């Protein structure tokens, strides 16, 4: 054997471990999937591979001050485990909740941490996936009959930071919240936060009290919903000593009903909804504040995600003089801060780029199907979870306008029902394919930009699968519709091809 061949061999080779199901990711979707497998497919062997050192996904990886949910935990929590805290929760509270799910259902024995998946290859001949994972200096091989992708949709290793003119000239530190440094000392410092979304609304109130001053620099405003971090119905039901499982379900249904009505009104009467949202901001900032410039977006409500601001904390920071908003474009970074296109110079010791994240399609894993590299963008999605030409795989892609976990639970039910159906039919393989009546169906991008158009999605749309004009060949983003459709999908429909 040549020296070159020796160098190319992995440092350590291990015998492949085989499982019926391999779950990618131990975040909110992966832990939920593991739970559902134990309850609905108790005879199936499975493993959860997680690249990070512990469970939690987003809630473990993000370390910036104030990190919290922007969805209420009555719907972001699992349907099977009551949430008993405040609706908007911190990352630590969410991980505690997830940890209880793991402990109560003996899931830890199924989870392997520090396993970064490098590749996944499907063999039609063997009807199984072969997965290669990096574990320290070694590589481990796993085989699985079914692959359940629960890794989320953005790249954990790096956030999205545009390259502005003059960034190298700035003498201070430039930080992205997604990779927050442990040694960052912002006490008594002048800080600029670039961005206007949920991360900014979370971060600014958390640091403003310790900083000399915080300036939020935004190119355009975002819609916010300020309100109390409490749920009156839940509190009333607890006073009546109603069982927590009942409270969870009742409150969950009320929130979902109200969210659905609000989403529909955003389309049918956008100007009225806009007025209501801006009135909520004006209640904190007063009539003299320039709401039109700094808090009135260019788009109609719900074309991008709307963040809930608990107790109006970011607005309180503005009225207290600890933070201010500048709506302008960046001309260049300077040695001491940022010069805007209007000619205003903003001084800073630290600049935080809360400018979003990078879309990650299937976890940036190298996929091959029968030796051919998978071009995900050339597939057509079946209800946003399966893809033409990709056997024995489901991807959890949640909702934009509702809690991610709502769909994770629905998809988990579908996966378990599909696995049990395959077993009953004695089939080892299933994939989706366009039916004869679908052959001439017009195809378009994964998401209609007129429906939902955040920057990360627009930047990465070309990487995502195509959608068809028929409901079953697209991700509807409609929980109230899917909760009635997904559980009753005909698994013997011609769209499902078994082998």
In words, what does this structure look like?
By secondary structure, the protein is α/β, with parallel strands linked by helices. It is built from 14 helices and 27 strands. Strands 1, 2, 3, 4, 5, 6, 19, 20 and 23 form a nine-stranded mixed β-sheet that branches. Strands 8-17-9-10-13 form a five-stranded parallel β-sheet. Strand 14 and strand 15 form a beta hairpin. Helix 7 (232-239) runs antiparallel to helix 8 (244-268). The radius of gyration is 24 Å and the shape is globular.
Instruction: Please state the overall shape, judged from the principal axes of the Cα atoms.
Output: globular
User: What Rg, in angstroms, do the CA atoms define?
Assistant: 24 Å
Strand composition percent? 15-25%
Mean pLDDT: 93
Helix content: 25-40%
Query: What are the segments in which pLDDT stays under 50 over at least 5 consecutive residues?
Result: 1-10
In quaternary terms, these chains amount to single chain
Number of E-state strands: 27
H/I helix tally: 14
Looking at the overall shape, the CATH architecture of the largest domain is 3-Layer(bba) Sandwich
Q: By helix and strand content, what is the structural category?
A: alpha/beta
> CATH superfamily membership of the largest domain, which one?
FAD/NAD(P)-binding domain
The biggest beta sheet, please? 9 strands, mixed
What's the structural domain tally? 2
Cα end-to-end separation: 40 Å
Write the CATH fold name of the largest domain: FAD/NAD(P)-binding domain
What's the CATH first level of the largest domain? Alpha Beta
